[in-house]
Write a structure and sequence with these properties.
The structure is a homodimer. By secondary structure, chain A is an alpha+beta fold. The first copy, chain A, has twelve helices and 16 strands. In chain A, the strands form three sheets. Chain A has a six-stranded mixed beta sheet, with helices on both faces. In chain A, strands 14-13-12-15-11-16 form a six-stranded mixed beta sheet. In chain A, strand 12 and strand 13 form a beta hairpin. The longest helix of chain A has 23 residues. Chain A starts with 24 loop residues before the first strand and ends with a helix. Chains A, B: It is an enzyme of class 2 (transferase).
């Protein structure tokens, strides 16, 4: 069973991965009883002096107090000469909690700053869980001393577990690349399962690297990776109030500083970071509420990338497409519907629809050698590819989604997340 | 049980209404065996000489052959001096059927034209059901003689039944108003249950009136009524390939011709027509796939009408809001989420959220006298009002939606519509 008492997703990886330790980053997790009982729900992360920080946050107009606070702090600069910290709680989102929301953020980040001797302007925070309930921040403040004493470079796996809400498994991913003069390591953790249609980052994601790279460049690498990773996933088309991704570089690798994204070293780092981001994003979809299928929606041949994105999103968000997938029904007519409603330029007679390597429809109609039995067999797979070529131009976008099942209704009609 | 073997929606009206006969309009329905067995599935409607026709159709880029055909015919003028006809089948949408789709439309409308002695340019058609299967139009052509012999001015109720797909009850609405010198009658029928997020009209709707009114003005009245009726409903955010509304005026009322929408007669007619359109639109939501709750989403105080529409649609389409309603959970935090993701201008501290006459949230937080028990009790109602005031301007939009239940998953994971 997962932390919220839900059965573990059938799409979960076999085990949590071994994440490389990032020199200069330590984690501690504990149970503050914010909402859940009998599990950890607060994580403290300390990042050593000289770290460079970048972030990406939801564009929701009703974003949570902690998100606004993080954005304000990062706007003043991501160079954390005196170190930085991140404090995260699950069980309560501290969103739509009025002026009291900021008071809670100040109380928690202030307590961390005092405990660790770090300026509060570099103490970031995230809260995830129910919206509109006051955050019992005194419960978090009360355990900060404990957390501080437990800080451990190998604590990432416990942290991934403490930040879960309706997640059924903890999520982590890493990469190690050969830098110029030494290895560079990247380690990330994430949580997210429902309310997933990121408009900037996703739920909560923390990625750490020992690369030497200045904050503005770090932010650039992060921004350039979002479109094909976190902004390319959807579980239910609902965008969270709390989406946040924080990326910290400690500079402790022996590898030379990365000073440009056009250099081979810069490109290698950007590629490895994007791999970690994509893997974490996929793990969120694999833990989509009620999910039983992991689906890649690959759109090509659109008049523009923006049109491709509209089509991919229309398919990946469509309740009718997602219920057909749940029912293992090769109902490609619903793909046609989604293309039609997307608002993108489309021409019936140039559209090609493939499931896996089978062409189902082309030239404006069902493919000549369409085989319903073969298509139905394909739908029994746990991992599916839906490919749409619009036959109009070079625009392309790939998105990842899951099916819409009774499990989603169970979780969301019965559980106040 | 409804025609597709589904239990009748708990939101269905007690009985099909008595629809006034419109002089000059006759209906006939029969079983052609297009897909379903043991029920009627084709309706023929004859409209007498001198009728004026207006229409509204989906803007889907993958719209069905019959929709494209209707649009091309209406573009040449809605004045049907030699009469008009509408032929509708359920069980097959004739959408994404390539060039063969238009051949089917030509075969069916040509046969009707020959049988009734009406120019094919004024024979309109609709098909609804599965997408991507060739329409067995010969089965429809074969029964057109039968249909012609059965034409009956009182056949609207049977027609409302013959056009159903996953609908669980037939849908009709009417109005009678005092015209200038005589009564004017309006009678309409509709079908629709899933794939409902009209972008122009809704599924299939046919409205008839004996008013004297020229086609361009009739089209104007129709267009002005769409925004607050059919374009203001959603079941599942999925827009059909086949949405079509045809409005025909026979001119047989004794009332004087309506020559302007600014006149009292014009305003009364527009108002009565909009009432019929709204009622039919509501019936579609009441028959939303799996629906157990009928929900009005009323957004006011937005910076613009367009912003109000974004917010109303974000709430009405949100799977998380709709599953909370299904679970009778007063989870207003999900309303905050939907406002935030909508893309409309919003200010947390000016937002007010009401369920019925209860204020749940205001001034950026939970209302002071918020009573969870009272809110939970309210959610047990079958008809719910969710009202959001953004506190920014005069923009307003009301939409209607239903809840998202296990029934929706059952219908769409197991039934190929």
């Amino acid at each position: 069973m997962g932390e919220a008492g839900l059965p573990v997703s059938p799409l979960a990886p076999a085990a949590f991965p071994d994440l490389p330790v990032i020199e200069g980053v330590e984690f501690a997790s504990a149970a503050a009883g914010v909402k859940y009982r009998g599990r950890t729900d607060v994580t403290l992360i300390r990042i050593a002096e000289g770290a460079q920080i970048a972030g990406a946050f939801t564009r929701s107009a009703t974003r949570a107090a902690c998100v606004l606070d993080n954005q304000a702090k990062l706007a003043r600069g991501g160079s954390a000469d005196a170190g930085a910290a991140i404090i995260v709680n699950s069980g309560n989102a501290n969103a739509f909690t009025g002026a009291r929301g900021q008071e809670s953020v100040d109380a928690v980040t202030g307590a961390v700053a005092a405990e660790l001797g770090i300026p509060a302007t570099h103490v970031f925070s995230s809260s995830t869980g129910v919206i509109g309930e006051p955050l019992p921040h005194e419960r978090i403040v009360a355990i900060i001393g404990d957390l501080s004493r437990k800080l451990d470079p190998a604590g990432a796996a416990d942290a991934a577990r403490a930040i879960m809400t309706t997640d059924t498994f903890p999520k982590g991913a890493s990469a190690t690349l050969a830098g110029d003069g030494g290895e560079i390591r990247i380690t990330g953790i994430a949580k997210g399962s429902g309310m997933i249609a990121p408009d900037m980052a996703t739920m909560l994601v923390y990625i750490f690297t020992d690369a030497k790279i200045a904050a503005p460049l770090l932010q650039e690498v992060l921004d350039s990776g979002l479109g094909a990773t976190f902004n390319a996933i959807t579980v239910d088309s609902d965008t969270s109030t709390s989406d946040a991704l924080i990326l910290a570089a400690t500079g402790r690798s022996a590898a030379a500083e990365i000073t440009s994204l056009d250099s081979p070293a810069g490109q290698a780092f950007a590629g490895a970071l994007q791999d970690v981001m994509r893997e974490l994003a996929h793990l969120v979809v694999r833990d989509g509420e009620g999910a039983t299928k992991f689906v890649e929606v690959r759109v090509t041949g659109a008049a523009s990338d923006s049109d491709a994105k509209k089509v991919a999103r229309a398919i990946a968000d469509s309740p009718l497409v997602k219920t057909a997938i749940a029912g293992e029904d090769a109902n490609w007519g619903r793909i046609v519907m989604a293309v039609g409603k997307s608002g993108a330029e489309a021409d019936r007679d140039r559209l090609t629809i493939r499931f896996g390597d089978m062409i189902l429809a082309e030239n404006g109609w069902r493919a000549e050698n369409y085989d319903e039995d073969r298509a139905s067999d394909y739908m029994k797979n746990q991992e599916l590819l839906i490919a749409v070529d619009l036959g109009l131009g070079q625009g392309a976008q790939t998105m990842w989604t899951c099916d819409l099942t009774h499990g989603y209704i169970d979780i969301n009609a019965d559980y106040r997340s």
